[in-house]
Amino acid sequence: METCRDFAAMLASASPAPGGGGAAALTAALGAALGGMVGALTVGKKSYAPVEEEIKAAMAELEALRLQLLDMVQEDAEGFEPLAAAYKLPRDAPDRDAVLEAATLRACQAPVEMMELCCRAMEQVAVMAEKGSRLAVSDAGCGAALLKAGLDAAALNVYINTKSLQDRAEADRLNTACRQMQQRYGALAEKIYDDVKAALLR
């Protein structure tokens, strides 16, 4: 398990993986962790007893999502390996186009899954921002901001791959799904952030 310094150094190196996808997954995992933190600072407090069960459920979901997002760092790197190998095939190799197409599709899988996990985490952070401890509301806002960053970063890692797909129908399907997630959950993240900011500056 790399330290934060090691991971950042790997990102800064000439190695293509980990890259933007791994960074997106880690960023989103931190956002989910902050949502969990809000929950941990809420449960057990008498004034939040009416929402405690809802907070506990959100915490459990966020913990599962945090771990899945951390796993996606490695999955994204592994998903890129076949694509890197495909690009090294001789241009006149008879199966190069088919191998490249399959590898490109595989490279889309991890960032699409990351986006789906980000969306699920955003829904739970919204619960924390609305019903969690007011003393930790800034952390809910930070969590939403990080999840949006992870969502948007993961999307770019899909779009760079769909751009080169020969199957344009599949490319359009993936692009549309990703854009819809960005629009819906990007808006939710902005609402959470703006509501938190307004509450803190009130």
Task: Indicate the proportion of strand residues.
Answer: under 5%
Q: Helical content, roughly? A: over 70%
If you average the pLDDT, what whole number results?
96
CATH class: Mainly Alpha
Number of strands: 0
- Tally of distinct domains: 1
SSE string, helices as H and strands as E? HHHHHH
Main sheet attributes: strand count, strand direction, barrel closure: none
Structural class given helices, strands, pairing? Answer: mainly alpha
Q: Per CATH, which architecture?
A: Up-down Bundle
Tell me the CATH superfamily: Formiminotetrahydrofolate cyclodeaminase monomer, up-and-down helical bundle
Low-confidence stretches: none
CATH topology: Four Helix Bundle (Hemerythrin (Met), subunit A)
Radius of gyration: 19 Å
Helix run count: 6
Distance between the termini: 42 Å
Gist of the model:
This protein is mostly helical and 202 residues long. The chain has helices at residues 4-12, 20-40, 52-87, 96-131, 137-162, 168-201. Helix 3 (52-87) packs antiparallel against helix 4.
What can you tell me about this protein's structure?
The chain is mainly alpha-helical. It has a single domain (17-201), classed as Up-down Bundle (Four Helix Bundle (Hemerythrin (Met), subunit A)). The chain has helices at 4-12, 20-40, 52-87, 96-131, 137-162, 168-201. The longest helix is centred in the middle third of the chain and has 36 residues, at 52-87. The chain is elongated. The relative contact order is 0.16.
